[in-house]
Structure formats: structure tokens, C-alpha cells
Amino acid sequence: VSEPRHSMGRPAQPHLWTYAVCCAALGLLAALGPNVTLRSVGALPLALLGPGTALCMAGRSRPWTYGDLALVPALSIAISTILGVALALVGLFDRTALAITLAAASLLIAIACRSRTTSTASRATRAVGPTAPVLVIAAVVVAAITASALTLAVRSSQHHSTQASDVALSAYQANGQLVVGLSADTSRTGPLVVRVTRGAVVLGEFHATASSGTTAFHWSAPLEADSGAVLVSVASDAHTLRTLTIP
Amino acid sequence: MTESLSSGHESGRNDLASPVDSSADKDTTQHLVTLLVLVLQSVGLLLVSWADARSRESANGAYGLFWAGLLAIFLPTAWRICDPRSSRADRLVLSLSLGAMLFLVKVVYGPTGFVFGDEFAHARAANNLLTNGKLFDSNPLLPITARYPGLAVITDTLARLSGLSTFVCAVILIGLARLVLVGCLFLLVESLSSSARVAGIAILVYASNPQFLYWDAQYAYESLALPLAVALLYLIWKGREESHVSLRRRVATYALILAIILTHHVTSYYIGLVLLAWVLVAKFRGRNVPSGERAPIEPAAVTVVATAIYLATVAPSTFSYLGPVLTRAARQGYQLLTTFHTSRQLFNNGGSGVSTPRWETVAAYAAVLVILALIPFGLYEVRRRKLPAIAAVLAWSSIAWIILLPLRLTQYGQETATRSAEFTFLGIGLAVAIVLARKPLADGRLRIAVLAALVVIFVGGVAISFNYSERMAPDLMASTVPTSPTPDDQAAAKWLLDTFGAGHVVATDLVTRNSFGSLGRQDVVFGNSTASHTYKIFYSPSMTSDVYTEIRNARVEFVVLQSRLVGRHPTGGPVFDVGEPVADSRAAVPAEDFQKFAGVDGFVPVYASGEITIYQVSASVRAGTQ
Predict the structure, then answer these.
(1) pTM of the model
(2) Residue A13: how many CB atoms within 10 A of its CB?
(3) Does B11 contact A at CB distance below 8 Å?
(4) Is the N end or the C end of chain A the one with fewer CB atoms within 10 Å?
């Protein structure tokens, strides 16, 4: 049995320097990127494609195949995992060390095997030329529908989670203080009143208006020892929703 | 040279790399048809997403939308892959997009966070590493994951480098792994059979395995290790023509082997067994081995030795994790064989009382019958055509699926039978595809018959993939026993972490524990991990000595009560503790079992929401002085 050869292009001049610059740039973005977006642009290709690309292009003299492309992420994940384990074992599992190690390892693999890579653009572009406009339109349509599906799912899930979440009241003692907290979405529940009482004595009363939206507030006050149980309650209109009794 | 299963047209000479010739217009039309199928796939995903959205509101029509969406993804793809006019590139692209779309079905089920029990366990492992940078840190949700840190390490590598959340990194990682699995399996089968059509149909059959839709799309170690294993097989097979093993190939092979061993126990054993069998079959065939094929002695030896060393030195607890599962399965399998004693009713949805639609049950049985009917012919074809040793090994591994099939009738064996499908279907896909693609499908009636067989296998696979009652996104506002964590669970878990910190011993039910063990990073207890009997804390109408003893033994610091359990029949499985009496699991929790903590000295209520009440247990209760 001979494997079908389906080249994606012809052998071209080595691109080791291009690869080196890419690795360095991705590593720098991952290590020093000022926000999540830029760091992700560096980190994801570096960890999920970098080492595998180095391994697949290293030492090769024949064109890239679909098989090579399929193996790139598998090898990248494998090598990134092993390097990550090694760094964790020596206590260097942090962002800078990971970025440097992944970029350096990818580059070293490429250099060690005397890289020769190929151009993948010319023939592939030529082959898909006649359908290129349709291809672009179809890609946009597929992407738009898929994005709609994901957006619908996210919105539905978030809306449902918000609807399903309830009023949460907390009260506990810490360092001689009574700490009371409330978490609620008052735009759904209406105005809420939190009362802290000991017997008939009101120690504190707090109002959360309906326009507050999601409310999460904390209140603390000294708690005298052996002075009786404290009742913490939250009410909407005249209905008590939650109570906690601190002995 | 082995006889090709396909025509020259099939074997890939009209792929994207082909020069444009006089048939360009024809090719353009064919590409357009493939693009239309891709659009239909995305429409199918939209329908499934809509079904989940309606299911979250318990609205009508969700079930129909779900199936319409799945069939919109699968049916046009199957039709196009079987179409004799399809090119290799068409089949490869459609196979990849099928795998991706079915992965996204799981994503739209839970698009904003983890939803399945195992996902929370692995998220805890990733959070441990992210927090303290230490390998092998204990994981109370699934202790064995601590010994296999591969998934946590690569997730945390992405999270630390990018700053993205663990969940987003998990989705990207498992999504990419899915593409690797489908891509490498397609290319391996294509290379073994010399036919892109066989490869495409093998992917359709593999995608029909009951674990593909949800289980292997979840964030879990097997979802990553299995694609790496298939990539390893493809890499080794690809290297057969090299006169000597280059440094590059050695590095690639060993990297994959090591990553698999670091990631998942069963996958490392599976790949070791397959490589050994490959060597044995290749050696046994001797001169009959097709030209160019070489027995992978070195990778097989390295895999087996490295796996054994890792098992003995790093992960000996795997014995106590897998041992009881396999022993129970073997014992009940033996009972089934000798006394025809069954301990499980099929399609009872975990005892939830919800009945599966009749047509799904029929489809599931039909799928099994179709596969059973086709496997022998597939094995015959593999032998007749003298396909390579690895093809024979994979195809014959489908016999394991047949042997394990009766275990579905046993309570404990069903897990083994179910979980093995993602491995055995690698062989079933090959064997069945070789039969279904035996002739070019130019004849319309033959193609319809093949399509019908594929659809039956797919529908049957989905029917048994997941409990019918849990197959779509749950309505969290319905007053039912929760099967996945609710927003209130998660808010409470986050409050406990923010207020008291991580690492406190928490006793709660098996669903709520996922939030507290993962998001809350608490040391949740349950019988299986601590040899305690957590259920005794809860299944008692008063504060008996048993309650205090269990709290003291497990050093429980917080008791978390999920009020949705009160007065409602659970889904059929254990509620608090995998070791609890079955009679307790099947009954609704009485209100007094939860009310007994109120007003008792040493149990201070510190948190209350609509569903969750948290009691802080005093040190004197834990010490037994109260």
C-alpha cells in the first residue's frame, strides 16, 4: 500500500529566519502582552502550533501534506504538555518561563534538524481560484450562522442563570464582629430590606432599592459575647425571604 | 501492492492541490455542493442551540428541534461523503466540520461553564495547578486525576500565557483535540485502505459512537489523550516507508507517547496493547507483510515499558481506581454468563421515571444489529484484501465491542461497556466502512441503502449517548432534583471561598459537591474517596450519634444542604454517597432530615439562599467534645 501523496505545494527556500522571528514575536506577545487579547494572539499559536510546526518542517525536503498539518497540533500539544510538566517539576511554572521555554524549544527543534520548509500558497490558491469568491461567501455564511448559534446559546444560558439565581443572605462571626452580606438582583425581586435584630432591638437595617440591580453589600459590627442570639433576615414587601440565627 | 478499494478518482487525485483543468466548471459545481453542506451543518447547529434554549425554559418543541438539528448536521454530510463525485478534499473538509459541529453541540449545551461531573473534577485539577503551580496536588473530586496531570498542565499553560479563563482554554483545547482526532483518523484509514471514501465513511461511523457527542467533547483527560493516541498511530504508520528512523520522527513519536502516559491511564494501556498487537501480527505474517510495512517494535516497547514504570512509580493508585470497576464488571459479566442474571434495565434513564421515546429505543437496537451484521463482512474484507497489520488489529478490536455488549445489562459492567466505545469504534469504523464502501456508490439505490445504515447507526448512537431526560440543557428553574450545578450552588461556593478561603472539609450531595469542590476549591467528602459514609450525616431525621460520628471522622467543617432534594424523587443514582443504600437513593429526602440541623448547638447557619443553606460546624463537634 502506498500512501496517497497530496502535496500542498513545492519545496521552497528555507524559512528558518521567518520562523525564528515568528516564535520570538509570539513569545514576546504571550509574556509581555498588555491585555488578554494580545496575549492570546501570542499564546495560543505558540503553545498549540509552535513546537509541532518546528518538528514537522524540520529536516524535510518534500512538500507539506495534509498529514503534516494534522500532526502539527497533536505534536504541539504533546511537547507543550511535556515542557509544562518539566517546568512545574522544577517550580518554574509561570508565564514568563513558559513563554521563553516554548519559543526557545520550538526554535531549537527547527535549528537542530536543519529546517527546510515549503511554500503552501501558490498551488492551493490556484486550485481554489475559480470558486474563491463563493468560498469566501460560504465561509462568511457558515461563520455567521455558527456564531449565531453560539451567541444564542450564551445569551440563553446567561439569561436563564440570572433568572434562576436567588436572594442569598449570609451572616457569620469573625474576630468578634458580625459580618452580614446580601447578594440579590433587586431589579427582579423588588426592593429588599435587611434587618439585624436581637430580641426586639434592631441593631441595623439596610435598604436595597429596586433600581439597584445586582446587589452585593456587606455590613459588620462588633458583637457582644453571651448577649443572646442575633436574627438576620431579608424581606421583600412584607414577606421574609431568608433568615439566619446567630447563637 | 494491495488492491485499492477505490478508483483513481477516489484515491485523492482530484483534491485541492490538483491543477485546474478543463473540468474546472464541474469541480466548481462540486465545490459549491460541498459548501452548501457546510452551510446546512451550521444551520443544524443553530437548530440544536435553539433546542437547548427552549429546553432551558421547558418550552415545547425542543426535542424536535434537537433531532432536526442533529440530522441537518449528519445527513447532508453522509450523503456528500458517499457521493462518488466528491473529491478527497471535500470528504476531508466535511469530516473535520462534522467533528467540529458535533463538538459544538456540547458547547451550546453548556456555553458559559462546565456542566458535566468529570469536567468539574478536571477543572479542580487545573485550578490547583493554576493556584499553586504544584503537580500532583490532591483532588477530592476525582483523586486519580492528580496522578495524570497532562490535561491540567496544557490547560494551565494556555491560561497562564493568555490570561483566558480555564473554561475558555478548555473549550479551545478540546475543540482542537477533536480536529486532531478526526483529521488523523481520516488520514490513517485513507492510507490503510487507499480510499478517501472509506475514510469518510469510517469517520461517519466513528462519529456515531455513543461517546462522541457529549462524553468525548467534555473537558476530561480522555478527550485529549485519545486524539493523541490516534495521531501516534498515524505518525508511526506514516513513517513506515523511511529507510531509517530519523531523529525528528523519534522525537515526535516519544513526545506523543509521553504526553499520552502523562494524560490518561486507559488510553496509555490501549495504545500499548494496539502497538503490541501490531508488532505481533506483522511478525506473524512474516513474508506476507505488504511491502514497506514495518513492525513498530521500538515504539511498542517504549510505550509498554514507560507506561509500566509510570504506573509503578507515579500512579500506583490507578490499581485501586480501576481495579474495583473492572472486578465488578467481570463478576457481573460472569454472573450474566452463568445464570443469565441481569442487574440493569435498559433505557430506564437512571431510574428517573422518564421513559425514552419508543422510536429511539428501536433505533438503538437497530444500530446494534446493523453493526453486528456488518462487522463479520468487514473482517472478511480486511483479510481478503490483505490490508496492513495495523488495519487488521484495529478491525479485529471491534470484536471487543461485541464481547462487552452484554455488560450493558449489568449495573456495574455497563460503565465498562459504555466507556470502551470510543476505543472499539476506531475498529468498528474501519470494518464497517470497508463493507459500506466496497463498491463505488454511483448506484442511487445502493447509496440510499448505505445512507440508511449510516443514519440508523448515528441515531442509535445518539439515543444511547446520554439519558433521554438530560440530553438537552436543563431548566434550572423547574422544581426538579438538579442533575447539574445551579447558579445558587455556584454563588454559594464562591461565597464560601471568598469568605473562609479554600481547603475546608465540606459535606454535601453529589451534584452540589461539584461546585464546592471545583469553583469553591473545598475538600468535599464522599464515601468513595474517604472511606467514610457521608450519607449517614443526611439520611437521619434527628441528630443521632451516627451523624456526629461521621462528621467527626470526616472532620466536616461545613454542611451544605440543597433544598431541591427535599420531597422530590432523585434521578435514580446515589444522592450523597456512592456507597449509600439503594433504598435511600430511590426515595425522596424527607424534610426532617434537613431540618434537624436547625437550632442545634455547634451548627451555625452562615449562608441561606433559595436552595442552599450552609451550616458551619463548630470545632467542639468535630473534636467530639459536644
Answers:
(1) 0.90
(2) 9
(3) yes
(4) C
